[in-house]
Design brief:
Elements lengths: L1 H21 L12 H7 L10 H10 L5 H11 L5 H22 L8 H21 L1 H14 L1
C-alpha cells in the first residue's frame, strides 16, 4: 500500500509540474494546493465512485493528456455548483486540450498529424462526455466543497 501511495504521489507531482510548465488555464485557487493536497485531489480520468481499475484504464487511454484531468479534478474540488463555474470548468478543458496538442503535436511536425488527430478526437470526446454527463458530479462536489468551508 505504501508503494502504491508513493507511486501515486510521484505521478500527481509530475502532473502538477506539467500543468505549471505548460501554463495551462487553472482554477483561481489551484496554486493554493501543495503537492500533497494535489495528490489527494488528483484521481486521473473518471469520478471517484468509478472503480479504480476503470479510472486507471481511462487514464492510460488518455496518457498523453494527463494534465487535463489534473486541472479538471481541482476544478471539481473547488466547485461552487454554479452554472458559471461549470462553464468555466468546461472552457478550461477545451483551452487546455488545445495547449496540450500544441505542445505534444506541433503542427509543423507533419509526420505526427495522425497522432495529433487521434489525441484531438480523444480530447473532444472527453469534453463532450463532460458536457453531457458530469454536471451531477460537479454539483455534488460543490456541496462537498461548501461543507469543507
Amino acid at each position: 500500500m505504501q508503494a502504491q501511495n508513493t507511486a501515486h504521489f510521484a505521478e500527481a507531482a509530475a502532473v502538477r509540474a506539467e500543468i505549471l510548465r505548460l501554463g495551462l488555464a487553472v482554477h483561481p485557487r489551484f496554486r493554493e494546493l501543495s503537492d500533497e493536497q494535489f495528490a489527494q485531489v488528483y484521481n486521473g480520468i473518471g469520478p471517484d465512485d468509478w472503480p479504480a481499475a476503470v479510472r486507471d484504464a481511462m487514464t492510460f487511454v488518455y496518457r498523453e493528456c494527463k494534465p487535463l484531468p489534473g486541472v479538471h479534478d481541482v476544478d471539481f474540488y473547488f466547485s461552487d455548483g454554479s452554472d458559471a463555474g461549470f462553464a468555466a470548468t468546461l472552457e478550461r478543458w477545451r483551452i487546455n486540450g488545445g495547449a496540450i496538442l500544441a505542445d505534444r503535436y506541433p503542427l509543423w511536425q507533419v509526420w505526427r498529424w495522425k497522432s495529433r488527430a487521434l489525441a484531438w478526437a480523444k480530447i473532444r470526446a472527453a469534453y463532450r462526455a463532460l458536457q453531457l454527463f458530469s454536471r451531477p458530479w460537479y454539483d455534488a462536489a460543490g456541496r462537498l466543497a461548501a461543507s469543507r468551508a
